[in-house]
Amino acid sequence: MKNYFKRIFSQTKPWELVLWWIFRCLMIAGIFLPLFPSLMAKLPTTRSAIPFAQNLLQMGANTVAMFLWEIFMMFPEKSYVRQIPAYVQNVSVPFVFATAFCGAYLNMYYSLWWWDSFLHTLGAFIGVFAGYEFVCAIQKRDKCKLNLSIALFASFAFCFVFGVAWELFAFTYDQIALGDSQHWSAALAHEGYRTLFPARDPERFALMDTMGDTVCNTLGAVLGYIVLRIYPYNHRGARDLNKKFAEQ
Question: Among 141, 126, 2, which Cα is nearest to 83's?
Answer without folding.
Answer: 141
